[in-house]
Design brief:
The chain is 34% helix and 25% strand. Helix 3 packs antiparallel against helix 4. It starts with a helix and ends in a 7-residue tail after the last strand. The strands form 3 sheets. Strands 1, 2, 5, 10 and 11 form a 5-stranded mixed sheet that branches. A 4-stranded antiparallel sheet has the order 4-3-6-9, with no helix packed on it. A 3-stranded antiparallel sheet has the order 7-8-12, with no helix packed on it. It contains 7 helices and 12 strands. By secondary structure, the protein is an alpha+beta fold. It folds into 2 domains: 107 residues, Carboxypeptidase-like, regulatory domain (Immunoglobulin-like), CATH 2.60.40; 76 residues, no CATH class.
């Protein structure tokens, strides 16, 4: 009996050590931005952020690649394709990188607000689905030309995957909710670089975030708040670098 008790006591420190090793932290992002000096702060919705292990110095090559990548904007991409002004306006209104990011309502298919690309796709879908308007409207995006449908999104994904591969590390990612909040969970102690990898379009500027974040042992099993902005306001931990929108090339 004494031997069993002694063995059990020896196991207690091991169990405690394993429990401590499993402790992780949570980084709560709150991304609030201004489109210009006259605008109020607002949450940046539906934008993806990445957490890269290591310091800024350790990730210097990657950070330089992020900061010096050729500027690419949604408007320039679609103008180069010859997309209609109505489609560009529709995408901008929803801050969309593809036609999939919001539903296409009938008002944008027929009538004064009609988007030509959607109207053509709707007509093709009607023929395909025997004139059923509801089904044609639901599936019209399948008849939008691929480059118009999601070409800009795929181009941004290609750049993102190239940068993630260059990092050579396991990169975590989260997307902000409609209020600009997101959570990185299960973080071990250490130093990380918070980045959006590709610039975010904001008003008339492109914003890039690359900031060093430390998760300390004292942050484990807690929620660490982290305020991100494009303005140096009170309590902001990560301020983005803004550059003017590029002028779209004309053929």
């Amino acid at each position: 009996m004494k031997l069993l008790l002694f063995a059990a006591l020896l196991m207690v420190p091991v169990v405690l050590a394993q429990t401590q090793e499993r402790q992780t932290g949570v980084l709560r992002l709150r991304v609030r931005v201004k489109a210009d000096d006259a605008s109020p702060l607002r949450g940046l919705a539906r934008k993806r952020f990445y957490l890269i292990p290591g310091t800024l110095e350790q990730n210097r090559t990657l950070v330089e690649a992020i900061e010096h990548q050729p500027p690419a904007t949604r408007d320039c991409y679609y103008k180069k394709l010859g997309a209609s002004a109505a489609l560009i306006s529709w995408l901008k209104e929803g801050d969309c990188e593809s036609v999939y990011c919001r539903g296409v309502e009938k008002d944008f298919v027929v009538g004064p607000k009609a988007v030509p690309e959607f109207a053509s796709a709707f007509a093709a879908s009607q023929k395909e689905y025997g004139g059923n308007e509801e089904t044609a409207l639901r599936w019209l995006t399948t008849n939008v030309p691929p480059d118009v449908r999601d070409g800009f999104y795929r181009d941004r994904q290609r750049v993102l995957q190239g940068l993630i591969k260059q990092s050579g590390a396991t990169v975590l990612s989260v997307m902000t909710d409609r209020n600009g909040t997101a959570y990185f969970t299960d973080l071990g102690p250490g130093t990380y670089v918070l980045s959006n990898l590709v610039p975010t379009e904001l008003g008339q500027t492109l914003v890039t975030w690359n900031c060093e974040v430390q998760v300390k042992p004292g942050d484990l099993a807690t929620e660490k708040p982290y305020l991100v902005s494009n303005r140096k306001e009170k309590n902001v931990k990560c301020v983005g670098i803004e550059k003017p929108m590029p002028v779209c090339a004309t053929d």
